[in-house]
Every structure is written in C-alpha cells, then in structure tokens.
Design brief:
The complex is a heterodimer of chains A (163) and B (179). Chain A contains six helices and no strands. Chain A has 163 residues and is mainly alpha-helical. Chain A has helices at 4-7, 16-38, 47-65, 67-73, 76-100, 119-162. Chain B has helices at residues 3-25, 50-55, 61-70, 123-135, 140-148, 150-171, and strands spanning 40-46, 77-82, 85-90, 104-112, 115-120. Classes of the chains: A mainly alpha (163), B alpha+beta (179). Chains A and B meet through α5 and α6 of A and α1, α4, α5 and α6 of B.
C-alpha cells in the first residue's frame, strides 16, 4: 500500500519515469477513445467502449499525479454537467425525430432528421450522434465514481492524521 | 424552492411524460404490423385459383415452386388469419424439436388485388438481411444496438447515469457534512 504522501499531491514519493510516460500516454489514449467512439458504426467499438477508454486515461492520470492535481485539471462541477449532457443528447436526438416526423411520433427513428437527403444516411448519422451521447455519459460517470472513491480514502487518511 | 429547481422539475416532468408517451406508442410484442416486425417481401404471384386452396389449408404447387426457386425451405402448413391473409408455418424435424419452437411462423401471404404477396416473417432475419442497407452502417452490432433497439440503449445509458448520481450523493466530497 502506498504511503499517505503519494496520494495527497505533495510531490513526495513520485517517479519521474511514471510521470513522463503518463504525460506521453494520456493524449494518445484519449485520441484512441475518440477513434473508437467515432468508428463505432464502421468497426468494433461504440459509445460504451470509447467512454470507458476515455475514463481510463483520467484514471491513469490520477495514478501518476495524485488526486489533487487531477482534480484541478478535471473539475467535479464540469463532470456533473457532462454526465447529464450525454443522456440529454441521446434523448434530444429522439425528441428531434418526433419533431421532424410531423404527427407520426417516430421516437429515435433517426431517418427523419433532415441531415442529408437520404433516409438511410440520416439513420447512420443519427446513430453516430447517439454514440457520442453514450460516450460522454459513460466517460463522466466512470471518472466521477473513481474520483469520488479516491477523495473519500484520502479524506479518511487526513482525519486519521489529525488525531 | 428556487427558480432553478422549479425549472429542473418542469424539465424532468416533461422528459418523463415524453418517455411514457413514446413507450405507449411501442406496438405490442409480436405484432406483425409493427415497423420492426414487418416482413421481408419475397415475391408476388398471380392469385387466380389459389385463394380457395389456401383457405382449406393446402399449399398450392405453384407457390411451393416459387419458394423453392428463391431457395428457402418449403412450408408444411397454412393457417388462415383473416380474409385475404394467411400464415405458412414450418414444423421442424423430430430431432430439432428440442432446440426450436415446434412450429415456426415462416411466410406471410396477403392478397393484394389480383396478386398474392408473399412475405417472410421474422425480426432477426430482417436485422441480418436488411439492416445493412436500411441503415447504411456495416457493423451489425452497432445498428442493432443503436437503431433497432435504441430505446433499450437509452434505458441502459440512464442506468449508468443513475449509478453515477447515486455514487455522487453517497461519496461527494464537497457539500454539507455532519460534524
């Protein structure tokens, strides 16, 4: 088990190798996550998988730099906004379908959104939008769960230290 | 309650009402006329003299020949649904009856004017055969998950969202805490 200092972001007990490798890896992991989300329609992948990969980049950042520095980079407030944004994006696409399919109420029938002139291509594009929504939600929720668990542990440590 | 909570409440009620309304719109399970359950049309043929045969539960030889020409299994019986609509079933061999339903609804025959239109039942065959050009997406998993079953996926996303909110409420760092 690591000592308390490694978690509180004081810079004690850090490895320059881990930090450098993390700094190099994080953007590539995020790029790969975006690739998985966007290519969900063409290859293996999709919103759930891409979201988890994106969240794993933040987990790696926390492991290397500690929760305080990571918390400054990725605020909890933004996280809360993001994880409802994804669901609203999904439901919003469904609502758009209702609005554009005048009177037929085709919820989540993406073909009715007039993005292109072809019904089938509209369906493909609507699917991409929905995958992005799923990706945002999954990413924000997993990051939020991980951050909150780490905060809790650190707080307990601090209180024990005060006694 | 401040204004923001009231706005949020109205928004949530609106979304909830929308989802209930949309769920009401989903057709009953197995409804053959529903959009996802619709048949795949195979061919049409001249109806003269065939209607009486079909009504009596006999499959006309010309219909069998047409089905064979398409390359699909021959039906073993016909049942009348209502005037001008029939349903052909396949009863699988004895050895396969442990794994399949005893009776597979296979073909749907409808009389349209002077013609018989022969459709093929089945949701999963529609997913497999028609999905790729109905949605312009080559990945079968994605188009089933995000298009045909998108209401289900919306629910899954909501479950994940709810899990996040629950963890946030239990373990949140900032906010009021009993001292």
């Amino acid at each position: 088990m690591p000592s308390k200092d490694t978690d509180t972001g004081t810079g004690k007990g850090r490895s320059i190798i881990v930090e450098t490798v993390t700094r190099l890896m994080v953007p590539f992991i995020q790029l790969f996550a975006l690739y998985v989300i966007i290519h969900g329609a063409g290859g293996p992948g999709g919103g759930f998988q891409g979201g988890v990969i994106f969240a794993s980049s933040f987990v790696l950042y926390v492991v290397a730099f500690g929760i305080v520095k990571a918390g400054n980079r990725f605020s909890e407030r933004a996280n809360i906004v993001l994880f409802s944004t994804g669901v609203y994006l999904y439901a919003g696409v469904g609502l758009l379908c209702i609005l554009f399919s005048y009177g037929v109420a085709q919820f989540l029938n993406y073909g009715y959104i007039p993005l292109t002139h072809h019904f089938e291509e509209n369906r493909a594009l609507g699917m991409d939008l929905v995958e992005v929504g799923i990706g945002i939600t999954v990413m924000a929720v997993i990051t939020s769960i991980f951050f909150n668990l780490v905060w809790k542990r650190e707080e307990v440590g601090e209180r024990e230290g005060e006694d | 309650m401040n204004q923001l909570s009231i706005a949020a409440l109205v928004f949530v009620l609106f979304l909830g009402g929308l989802f209930v309304y949309v769920a009401e719109d989903i057709p009953a399970f197995g409804d053959p006329d529903s959009a996802p359950n619709r048949y795949v049309k195979l061919f049409d043929m001249d109806a003269t003299g065939l209607v009486e045969d079909l009504d009596q539960g006999v499959i006309p030889a010309s219909l069998n020949a047409k089905i064979e020409a398409v390359g699909l299994p021959l039906p073993s019986g016909v049942a009348k649904l209502k005037e001008g609509e029939w349903e052909a079933v396949i009863i699988p061999e004895e050895t396969k009856q442990h794994f399949y339903p005893k009776e597979q609804k296979y073909y749907f025959i409808a009389k349209e004017g002077d013609e018989l239109w022969v459709y093929r039942y089945s949701l999963y065959m529609r997913f497999v055969e028609e999905g790729a050009h109905e949605t312009e997406v080559p990945n079968m998993v994605t188009y089933i998950l995000a298009d045909y079953r998108s209401y289900d996926t919306l629910g899954e996303t909501t479950v994940i969202f709810t899990a996040g909110v629950a963890v946030l409420l239990l373990l949140r760092r900032t906010g009021k805490r009993p001292e």
